[in-house]
Amino acid sequence: MSAALIPLTIAPFAAGSLNPIMDAILCSGIIIHSHIGFQSIIIDYVPDKRMPKIRAMFWWGLRLATLTVAVGFFEFETNDVGLTEGIKKIWFAKGKQDSYVEPILQGVA
Questions:
Q1: Torsion angle in degrees (nearest 10) through CA of 65, 11, 88, 100
Q2: CB–CB of 26/84 below 8 Å?
Q3: Which of 12, 44, 56, 73 could form an SS bridge with 84, CB 3.0 to 4.6 Å?
Q4: Contacts of 85 (CB under 8 A, 6+ apart)
Q5: What does the pLDDT read at residue 90?
Q6: 36-74: string of b/e by CB count within 10 Å (b at 16+)?
Q7: 45, 98 in Cβ contact below 8 A?
Q8: What pTM was estimated for this model as a whole?
Q9: d(Cα 66, Cα 82) in Å, to the nearest integer?
Q10: Is the distance from CB of 20 to CB of 82 less than 8 angstroms?
Q11: Which residues contact 54 (CB under 8 A, 6 or more apart)?
């Protein structure tokens, strides 16, 4: 899954086409990759024999978090600009990102 995310991340920007199907595939890949990664953490660090109730709590927490992220991605895709367009806007954003530093530097000088 990790190897599949590399071309999925680069393809929309390299091709110049920002379409919802590519966004949906990228969002699905991110969700699956994250779920599998956190699942591995639970398997490795929360032993089933010593802490079965805590492990069950972590499993349900992971399911809830995965569902929450999936709903968030769906909302962002359907009601906003989409993932790749959002990343593109953030990447090329210009504005007053350093405006809080200027008064501090003026006071020092």
A1: 70
A2: yes
A3: 12
A4: 18
A5: 85
A6: eeeeeeeeeebeeeeeeeebeebeeebeeebeeebeebe
A7: no
A8: 0.76
A9: 19
A10: yes
A11: 46
CB atoms within 10 A of CB 23: 20
d(CA 58, CA 60) in angstroms, rounded, equals 5
* Residue 45 Cα to chain centre, angstroms: 23
> Which amino acid is located at 38 in the chain?
F
d(CA 83, CA 69): 13
The pLDDT, as a whole number, for residue 8 is 79
Q: Report which listed range, 22-31, 43-52, 84-93, is most confident.
A: 43-52
- Looking at the chain, the number of H-run helices and the number of E-run strands are 5, 0
* Residue 53 structure tokens: 């109730």
Please give the Cα distance from 103 to 90 (Å, whole number): 25
Q: Which two tokens stand for residue 11?
A: 């393809």
